[in-house]
Amino acid sequence: MQVGWIGTGTMGEPMAGRLLAAGHALTVHNRTAGRTARLVERGARAAPTVAAAGGEVVITMLPAPREVMDDVLANAVPGTVVVDCSTSAPDLARHWAEEGERRGVSVLDAPVSGGPAGAKAGTLSIMVGGDASAFALVRPLLETLGTTVVHHGPPGTGQLAKLVNQTVVAGATLAACEAYALAVHGGLDIAKVLASVGLGVAGSPLLDFLWSRLAAADLEPGFKLDHLLKDLSLVHEAAGELPMPATERAGELAERIRAVYGGERGTQVLVKVAER
Hints:
- The chain is of the alpha/beta class.
- The chain is about 50% helix and about 15% strand.
């Protein structure tokens, strides 16, 4: 397919690279032009603007997609399928789907989970909301990017499923960081603890990732604290009157840590909760 790709950051670049490797023709755009260089070296065409990044399918992967998506829809030709892999509000996804329908453009919300490693390996979980026929058209592309591709229903349901995912991630990240701090505090061998815990019901790829980074004293992001807090604000918005006290507490602690260490660190910086 002819694919326009917008957003070539930590997640977007390896995802776009998988489509290139599968033989699709890519036109790529990033706000920082130099971030497209490696993809251009592999055969992609660089687009100087969002408007120039057209195709049969246009895929966005952005930390804050609102303004870019408005630009995408303003320039997409009728018949285009726009796939937003960013994480945003379900209401916003519904708005874009309605706006796309007025323009003859199908818009799918298709946020992903799996981190940079999953993006590179093509093992992402992709949660899709929107028109079923548009989903069927782009499903082969999505299956190049992920091993789990689920259509949840009408517009916005993909984003809501992702916010469910992020609710689990927030709680599990904080719990894993506190557990690591407890193991260190008690003088345990971290590798032995992970060998025990990681194969039990508490084990997960997230636990493995966080503990390996913490053991190496590596606070560089796989997932930035800023991005977690952005997602938690979306969870709060989507929950409305539904009480979510544990998630709210995780957000409060994350805000406290961001005030001291900044939001550019990886979420494993939440281990600092146990130091203060």
